[in-house]
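Human: If only I could read backbone structure tokens as easily as an amino acid sequence. Take your time, and here it is.
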Amino acid sequence: MRISDRRFAMFLMAPAALFLAIFVAYPLFRLVTDSFFKISPMAGGPRDFVGLDNYFRAFASEAFMGAGWRTLAYTLVVVTLEFALGLGMALLFTMLGRNSQIWRTVFLYPLMIAPIVAGLLWKFLMIDNFGLIGTLLHQAGILQNPNQIGWLSDPNIVLFSVAIPDIWLTTSFMCLVLFAGLQNIPGDLIEAARLDGARAPAMLFRIILPLLRPVIAVALVVRGIDAARAFDTILIQTNGGPQSASETMSLLIYRTMIRFGDPGLASAMGTIYLLAMLGVAFFAVATIWRPGKDN
């Protein structure tokens, strides 16, 4: 029995399509569908159709809008610092060549640590009263007392404090992706620019970064989405406090669903969050990568 190439390809893709339909498409369909209902948190409870009421409640909620702005600020800080540090380390490893093999391995170690473990570690480093960072800064003469900075208790800085473990964990991922992209830049091009008298800033901004644009777009989109849904490191450090100053969108949706028992409102918040993330991803790809426009 002979089958066409088209049917053979569809036969090979069937398991993957079935997996995506069960574990991706169906949960998304349920998420969007539940957002139009008022659902009892009790199993087997009533489901009342309320239309767009959950969406109106979400946009009217100060907690939702505040969590949205905090998530945006957290993502910008994390991704910007990770990109700057990752690019710097990738350029340094490229300059060192084979001599960077051991350093590259050491630099990747944080990537192997579970986020909840990293959050717990940094919580003990920054916690008030006996945090190691405050003690070291006090002994170095920078702080007057170890508790002068409330890393995890000051609402003005706690959002940046809880971002530190995320930056520490995943800067190596950004470095790894950018380093792989740097290996694909033709050495002849760099050498020709050097012979023409181009200095380091000109080579970086006029040759290296434009050629790295597709890699940069992928790295920023992947890490941006990952940072925006940060949950475990923040939960273990502050549980969203103090005064909800570190409550990001993922934590708010979790609390709305589990603690406040409102699955319909949580589904509406999740749907809005999903659409916002898709919009940001498409914008990043269109403006940074610009597929097809360079031709």
